[in-house]
Design brief:
There is one protein chain. By secondary structure, the chain is an alpha/beta fold. It folds into two domains: 204 residues, Lambda Exonuclease, Chain A; 74 residues, no CATH class. The protein has eleven helices and 13 strands.
Amino acid sequence: MKITNKMNLPEALVKAVSIERHNEPGTLSTTTLLNGMKQILIRDRHFDELEEDVADHFYVLYGSTAHKMLEHEGKNEFAEVSVKHDVDGVTVTGKVDNYNMDEEIITDYKTASVWKVRYKSFDDWYRQGMIYAWLLIKNGFKVRKCQFIAILKDHSKREAKRDLSYPQKPVYVYEFDVTKEGLAEIQKFIEAKISLYKLCVEMADDDIPPCTSEERWEKPTKYAVMKEGRKSAVRVLDAQEEAEKLVGELGKNHFVQIRPGESTRCVEYCSCNGFCNFCRDNAAATEAQEEVNWP
């Protein structure tokens, strides 16, 4: 992968950013399994052609520094535990930040936005923790609980005082019990992902099915009922039929403005989008819709 430096940042920062292939041939890491299959395969195939800017990795460096500070082992604790297990000829790997053998607890350290906590958007952390637990158990360890300790990089003390629903500290702990039901569910998830990987690995880039709406962080298309001369919408609806019906009821000078949905991850957070036909087609469709959006 090529690292650019569009802001002309100090060379020390550029050298600190080292992005290597995440998976050896025949292996898939825990965090890779959480991505869409199209992203997984395109990133691997075009890795040497991809570009990312050093400025976009500032928080990655921040997270790496935090991990370095926390890697010291306590009594009966193990840091940076690497585990793996074969699933139908593909090796699933994981590196656990911390494992306490006495407490049977996995701990993972994160940097995160306050909004992740406010929206309780923890599905990815739950799956990551459960895959780690599954791997450790497959390797003969016991796991009772997972906990994620997150440093909230955009925390505001002023906002915490103003709003009691806002995270009150710049550190947040998300934890959950590891259950038999959860392990059975995550095994099905892993096996399904491996099956899809084996099905798609020989496909051409454009033939690989798109990542799911969940994997793309998709925001659905909305239909705004607008009035000429007014900037804000009269009402925003999920269905075009409902919006057109309301326009008919409101009468003259009202119209429907289509606000196309967006796959946020594709647009903002996926370095593979230049090689993805779904992203290209979606961007073209959005641009065409914007041209005809206003009467």
